[in-house]
Amino acid sequence: MIMHRLHSSFMTRAVLALMGGIFLLGLSACGRPGAPKPPGPSEKVTYPQIYPPE
What we know:
Blueprint: H1 2-28
Organism: Parasaccharibacter apium
Region (Disordered): 33-54
Protein name: Argininosuccinate lyase
């Protein structure tokens, strides 16, 4: 009885750890590499600017 309980607990933790690892691996693949850049040529970018515009 005790051995079954230990085995079940170990398997539950192993499955949860595996699922957590897969979830974190999936999240780490999201997004683009590098710093965000505004679209368009850099000379036409008007942001950031002072609010309210004068």
